[in-house]
Design brief:
single chain; alpha+beta
Length: 149
């Protein structure tokens, strides 16, 4: 399980998504007050929750947990392939929701900026695709060895 390259790719995806869950994603300035966008909340500088974007947080949590589940299904490669495709869809949806939260969530903001963590789902898309390719290669290798027998 650990010696396969797709395990490393999926561990990287899980770690990056965990960072995305807990790091601030963007900031907005509104009337002298600074708001920060997190996965589960839009918070003011005093720490109070202005607007909870709960669906984005749930989607990011699923996108963080799914690669860990895929790692432990190493004997069922076809299920791994399907779950990697589901992970790709989750990551694309999460990035779309983050973009919507960034561009429409600030309302009347006077200034705004993105933090590096908002781009991590895009990096995770790449690593999930690499894991999907490696799992598919393993499946093709096993099928070719079954034909030889």
């Amino acid at each position: 399980m650990i010696q396969r390259i797709q395990t490393l790719y999926l561990l990287i995806v899980a770690a990056l998504m965990a960072v995305t869950l807990f790091a601030p994603l963007a900031w907005f300035g509104l009337g002298g007050e600074e708001l920060t966008l997190h996965a589960f909340a839009l918070r003011s500088a005093s720490g109070e929750i202005v607007r909870p974007p709960i669906w984005t947080g749930l989607l990011l949590t699923l996108a963080c947990a799914l690669p860990l589940a895929v790692i432990f299904l190493y004997k069922r490669r076809l299920v791994q392939i399907r779950l990697c495709v589901a992970e790709l869809v989750l990551l694309a949806g999460a990035e779309a929701m983050l973009a919507v939260g960034y561009f429409w969530g600030h309302g009347e903001a006077e200034f705004q900026g993105m933090k590096p963590a908002i781009a991590l789902p895009l990096v995770c898309l790449l690593f999930t695709w690499l894991a999907l390719r490696a799992i598919f290669r393993d499946e093709m290798l096993v099928r070719s060895l079954n034909r030889i027998r």
